Amino acid sequence: MFPAAFDYAAPATLAEALSVLKQRGDDAKVMAGGQSLIPLLKLRFAQPALVLDIGRLPGLAGVKRDNGHLTIGALTRHVDLERDTELGKTFSILPEAAHWIADPLVRNRGTMAGSVCHADPSGDWGSVILALNAELVAQSSAGERMIKAADFFKGPFATTLRPDEIVTAIRIAVSSAASGGSYQKLERKVSDFATVAVAVQVEMDGRKVARAGIGLTAVGETNIKAVAAEKVLAGQEPTDEVIAEAARQAAAAAEPKDDIRGTAAYKKDVVRVFVQRGLKAAIGRAQGGKA
Amino acid sequence: MSSTAHLHGGIGDSIKRKEDGRFLRGKGNYIDDITLPGMLHMAILRSPHAHARIKSIDTAAAGAKPGVIAVVTGELMAQHKLAWMPTLSGDTQAVLATDKVRFQGQEVAAVIAETKYQAEDARDAIVVEYDILPAVISPDGAKATGAPLIRDEKEGQKDNHIYHWESGDKGTTQAAFAKAAKVVRLHTFYPRCHPAPMETCGCVADVNPGTGKATIYMTSQAPHAIRTVFALVTGLPEQNIRVVSPDLGGGFGNKVPVYPGYVVATAASLLIGRPVKWIEDRSENLISTGFARDYHMTGDLAVDKDGKMLALRVHLDSDNGAFFSDAQPSKFKAGLFHIVTGSYDIPTAHITADGYYTNKAPGGVAYRCSFRVTEASYLIERLVTNAAIELGIDQAEFRMKNFIQPEQMPYHSATGWVYDSGDYPKAMNVALEQLGYDEMRKDVEARRKKGEVTGIGIASFTEVVGAGHGADFDIIGLRMFDSAELRVHPTGKAMLRMGTKSQGQGHETTFAQIVAEELGIPAMDVAVEEGDTDTAPYGLGTYASRSTPVAGAATAMVSRKLRDKARKIASHLLEAAEEDLEWERGKFYVKGSPDRAKTIQEIAFAAYTNLPEGMEAGLEGVHYYDPPNMTYPFGTYAVMVDVDKGTGQVKVRRMVAVDDCGVRINPMVVEGQIHGGLAEGFAIAFMQLITFDDDGNCIGSNFIDYLLPTAWETPKFETGETVSPSPHHPLGAKGVGESPTVGSPAAYVNAVIDALSPYGITNIDMPVTSDKVWAALRSKGVTE
């Protein structure tokens, strides 16, 4: 439990950090809250030559609203989202999912963007940003680009972020439609990774579902966007039959493996159960006027 | 509790724990807090394979790394005849592998370096070439034709069988089964779990090159026995070995055995002439040190037409890992498993047990358990619930009908135990009343009608603890007495030293309270010291709930010895005949004249200043207590669970635990022990598993895979008590630390099985995880 030797840099500005990455991005790991990276260093599973600590960079923490977008800064901690009462009114899935992450110690230090960039298929935020159709703001010395959540995850612990880039924010479009969300998670104990979790976000058009977003956690090589299930719901009145069909489609999209947390068949069925429960909860919130 | 009782702290007073001040302030002194001048650090290289022949070990690159003082291999240890060491069960165990590795995580080499970082860097540079062999990961695999021979180095060892052991009477049991109206069978696997103390194992070995004295600071629950083992293994004279167990961060049986790391660190210190520290990390602790259980059990219960139990037959296969190193009394190969008839008046029983070598870590320690009592209690309590369900009798009623009755005490069991005392129907009634059993049964029925999956489980366990009388109980020949040495200073304050070793049980408080009760010195004035073999009297240590039954009895006896001397001094001081003196806690007074009195403090002063003619000075003594019998704590636990049909998750709605551990010395400490054990029992029942893939890779080697419950998942405990004093213990106490881990797993699982019984589900082996419950429900067509 003693890491191999590494260099450590903690630049004072984003520009400086981006310039370090430009030089050494290939053998560096960017650290925000450190809640995933430090355990990997201690186990010597990760042995980067350089740890670039962005934890003290100014201006990257906090949630902002402008131009119809919610912008979550890269250094916004899980706990900040968990306790944001304004968010609870508009995007209740954010505080709800935050509450399910690990334990209070991890939530106090870990960041949403850091967790997304870590790209653990068992990570909770990946499913949430897929359900919300969020975008990631990626910066490098060369400039800024937007990456859609659906285009971000490449494989376990692998993303389309380039070695010279840092994700500086996560951006979510704010809908004027009645909307609601839910995060359902099965874990064996507090601070465990999900056995299965499901993120659901719906926008309603009267009695019909205008748009549904469904993200699946811990049932594949990456967090999975259950596109077929989303399509089942779009434009439909969410009857028990429609919900059950969407749940079946979501289960079919899951590609879990047998492991200590359960068999693949078990996890697929829990996806089905959670999509049903999640949709009912999300639709209820949208129709009750509570996101 | 009156304020004076608080100050005095006699038996029955819930005084605050004396030791907690330093722990709460972060001022405890654990192994890793110990730093000696010139101290080096050791890291152990472990086998990545479960079974492999070692072709070569190349240490050149490691030896050349910065800060490295030495790289130790099995070859070097063999030159000092230390490549192998004896186990506590009469087998041998590799210290550092020379020929083969026999489990994943086995010790292969060690690096000694100036810093821990340097030691770990160099460890990664050792190159070992292996020839991988097929792994054996279960008793069935060990028995299979053509199974690889794990212990090929043992002369005469032709297969993987370790022992065959029997208890009870085969003939009468067969005859009883022939007459049975019904036979109920349960095959169950009590999986491998791990004590996982918060503090891992480690040591600081300091062999002084000037004096040759070896001081070993060590995480040991049994420092005196360890010193003797070290003397026998190394040939060092025993007076030149000092084992010190400082504060221990939990043990639960994990810190009873001698581990290779202790031996290598000591040898390294001897060879280098500097102190060497070795501290396990979490994974090393989980994959290589003493595990618990791993018992495959089949029980048959014969019942007559009226629901009376006639006979019990049990066969078990024990998976002992690569070396038979169970820490248990030498006469009993399957520990005290033959307590398996439990709380029931079963006329005859027959038990057979076979132990097998596998390519898994050795150990077989009694994790919060008196040597395999947990396995026994689990089997009988699960079997009894299944029998009640199969017979269509209420679980509680079936138990009530078959309990050993209080008037049968002392009760001679079919397997040879003599139960000292107990009132099982009473404990059951208290538990049922506390739960509101009849109402809760109705509630269960009503919920089931609505489609809910819910149930109630009961376990009425009986333990056998306090090992034990010397004629039957020994570890490597050392009789299982224990000791207390009490020294009263001139000012009336006292020092109590004992052969036991607290790992968090609260000995510094509980044993001071025994002195307070028996000799009248307030508990706050009695310092309790354990764990330093240079100063404490010899004892067998703390495990198997034996401290209060054995060392607690020794404390009472030595206090009484001193009280007898105090009476003589009081007689001299008061100028009254000894038989005219009355004892009241803390003083002697002349019968009929309570004002003519001498306090124990005045008497203590006189013991050094004003003695009767011819009396030896001082007020001190030592007592070695050999218990006449074991003690038999018992209780009834009742659990209610709700099952989520969609996910298979089980939620414990209520948990009522009624314990009878005889007289409670500090009820708060007892209550704390019960809460802790119920939480550990919950974890074993629902969460914990050390398992292996087909190649023998250990799954459960960290706290992501091996789960410890937090306050969030742990249910609320509703405790209760009855008191049946032990008739042979000087204070009537029985020991309690392990009752909740012994009794609760069956209660939790019985509740789940009761909930699933309407669907015809009769067993799920522990841990009862949500995926197993889901699979059982779906197999019966139950879904959401």
Describe the structure.
The complex is a heterodimer of chains A (291) and B (784). Chain A is 36% helix and 26% strand. Chain A is of the alpha+beta class and 291 residues long. Chain A has three domains: 7-53, Uridine Diphospho-n-acetylenolpyruvylglucosamine Reductase, domain 2 (2-Layer Sandwich), CATH 3.30.43.10; 63-173, Uridine Diphospho-n-acetylenolpyruvylglucosamine Reductase, domain 3, CATH 3.30.465; 178-284, Enolase-like, domain 1 (2-Layer Sandwich). In chain A, the strands form four sheets. A five-stranded antiparallel beta sheet of chain A has the order 4-5-10-6-7. A four-stranded antiparallel beta sheet of chain A has the order 11-12-13-14. The model of chain A has no long low-confidence stretch (mean pLDDT 96). In chain B, a hairpin with a 2-residue loop joins strand 21 and strand 22. Chain B is an alpha+beta fold and 784 residues long. The longest helix of chain B has 28 residues, at 547-574. A seven-stranded mixed beta sheet of chain B has the order 3-7-1-14-11-12-13. At the A-B interface, helix 12 of A face helix 5 and helix 20 of B.
